[in-house]
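Summary of Year 1 activities. Much of the first year was spent building the evaluation harness for sequence design. The harness presents a backbone, in tokenized form, and records the residue chosen at every position. We chose the following record to illustrate the format because it has been used consistently in internal testing since the harness was completed.
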């Protein structure tokens, strides 16, 4: 009997090295997780194929004969296979080794890219295996087709998976029986057999539904464990003070905060006032006011005697954040300087491209606590960056940073800091639950007064003739600026607001 953790080589020695080299498949579990990309009917329809198509199917050898090659030594083998209605030619330029297997009346599985010669479809040096070798007693109607594994043919992968399934007993099931019954899901063993060796497409659908549900279930269970572990972590409460930086900043605001900004701000205030670390995702379109919400949270951290760090994905964005914050704070960002306000703090920038002198001054301000707000890139994560009392971490553009990067910055606090993550990428709640499952989610859904409306467009990756902004008006741009970017799912572009808040 084999287990999913068993090494593959003792079971399938001939193909194990190629599985490891080309697909990073080392264990039985890895192989069972290598799903077929599609399925073909066992019986080939040779009349439906066209040049350039990859053919896989069962056919019978109708005729076979060898003849000398005209321009070089040796003999070539010409075979005609049939599905009973249509024929297709097969050519081997080296007959040796093939003429014994490919005799009239023999049935086999043939695979190769269809070409054309003298007006007839043909296969040149296709892969094949005879049904006696493949297991003539297996009459499943569907043949699984796998992604290429080096020079291995798809039926070699199929046979390798079959060998594993033949010796595999019931595998441990990650889903409790109660959940499987309530969701009408097949067992994991049945799902693996259904995905790799189905009789019908209905079995494939049932297997895929079960395995996809398991993936989501395990992910959510892992994230729930993370949240439970975080719930047992204590930190310092950061309640702020009524006559501090935040109050002075709010008095100077030349505009009124939106209802959404006030609501999210109140939530952040309540969570920062607890001795449980805040972990919150703030999402909203460009111009919805995320920066103001984040800045108010950072000022609350400073008012509580701590420091705040804003982590940006690029130096350009870090410098942009520094300019925005210092402009909005005015003399409140000039702590220790002539003309600075009484409650003022200091805002410093820390990036990898700074000169040695600039970096030394910034590091000194950070470790001494003179800098209440530190803006930077991945340079903030380096070991030589020490904070006096890191109270809040703000991360811009979550999709550029992983959990490990956030944890590295969290570890720089004497106690675990509160964490606020900002993203301009629209994230449906279902995606937010899985990708950002260790974060609570808040969304800004309205624009401040006087802002130009924002429109978002999804552009196909292969848009013919390039992409033009629909309709009159200013050109559209990506949410973070620059040219529209593309991905496998297309490009999302956004009309910029008049100015950022």
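For this record, the design step produced the sequence shown next.
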């Amino acid at each position: 009997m084999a287990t999913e953790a068993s090494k593959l080589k003792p079971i399938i020695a001939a193909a194990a090295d190629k599985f490891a080299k080309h697909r990073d498949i080392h264990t039985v579990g890895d192989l069972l997780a290598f799903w077929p990309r599609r399925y073909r009917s066992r019986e080939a329809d040779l009349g439906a194929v066209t040049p350039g198509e990859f053919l896989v199917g069962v056919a019978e050898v109708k005729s076979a004969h060898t003849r000398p090659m005209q321009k070089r030594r040796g003999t070539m083998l010409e075979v005609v296979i049939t599905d009973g209605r249509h024929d297709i030619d097969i050519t081997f330029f080296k007959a040796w080794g093939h003429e014994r297997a490919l005799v009239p009346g023999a049935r086999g599985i043939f695979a190769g890219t269809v070409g054309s010669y003298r007006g007839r479809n043909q296969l040149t040096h296709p892969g094949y295996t005879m049904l006696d070798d493949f297991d003539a007693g297996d009459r499943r109607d569907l043949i699984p087709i796998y992604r290429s594994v080096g020079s291995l043919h798809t039926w070699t992968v199929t046979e390798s998976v079959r060998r594993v399934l033949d010796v595999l007993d019931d595998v441990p099931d990650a889903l409790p029986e109660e959940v499987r019954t309530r969701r009408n899901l097949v067992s994991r063993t049945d799902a693996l057999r259904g995905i790799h060796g189905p009789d019908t497409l209905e079995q494939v659908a049932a297997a895929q539904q079960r395995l996809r549900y398991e993936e989501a279930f395990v992910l959510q269970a892992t994230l729930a464990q993370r949240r439970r572990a975080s719930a047992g972590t204590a930190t310092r409460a950061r309640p702020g003070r009524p006559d501090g930086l935040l109050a002075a900043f709010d008095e100077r605001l030349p505009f009124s905060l939106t209802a959404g900004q006030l609501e999210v701000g109140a939530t952040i205030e309540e969570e920062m006032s607890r001795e449980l670390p805040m972990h919150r995702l703030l999402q909203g379109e460009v111009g919805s006011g995320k920066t103001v919400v984040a800045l108010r949270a950072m000022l609350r951290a400073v008012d509580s005697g701590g420091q705040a760090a804003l982590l940006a994905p690029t130096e350009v964005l870090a410098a942009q954040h520094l300019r925005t914050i210092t402009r909005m704070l005015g003399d409140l960002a000039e702590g220790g300087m002539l003309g600075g306000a009484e409650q003022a703090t200091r805002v410093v920038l820390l990036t990898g491209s700074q000169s040695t002198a600039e970096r030394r001054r910034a590091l000194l301000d950070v470790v001494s606590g003179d800098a209440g707000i530190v803006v930077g890139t991945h340079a903030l994560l380096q070991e030589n960056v020490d904070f006096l009392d890191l109270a809040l971490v703000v991360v811009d553009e979550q999709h550029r940073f992983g959990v490990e990067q956030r944890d590295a910055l969290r570890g720089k606090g004497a106690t675990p800091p509160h964490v606020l993550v900002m993203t301009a990428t629209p994230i449906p709640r279902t995606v937010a639950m899985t990708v950002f499952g260790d974060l609570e989610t808040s969304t800004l859904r309205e624009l401040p007064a006087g802002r130009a409306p924002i429109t978002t467009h999804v552009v196909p990756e292969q848009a013919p003739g390039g992409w033009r902004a629909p309709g009159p008006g200013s050109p559209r741009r990506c949410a973070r600026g620059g040219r529209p970017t593309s991905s496998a799912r297309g490009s999302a572009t956004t009309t910029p607001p008049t100015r950022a808040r």
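Confidence is low (pLDDT under 50) at residues 471-501. Quantitative recovery figures across the full test set are reported in Table 2.
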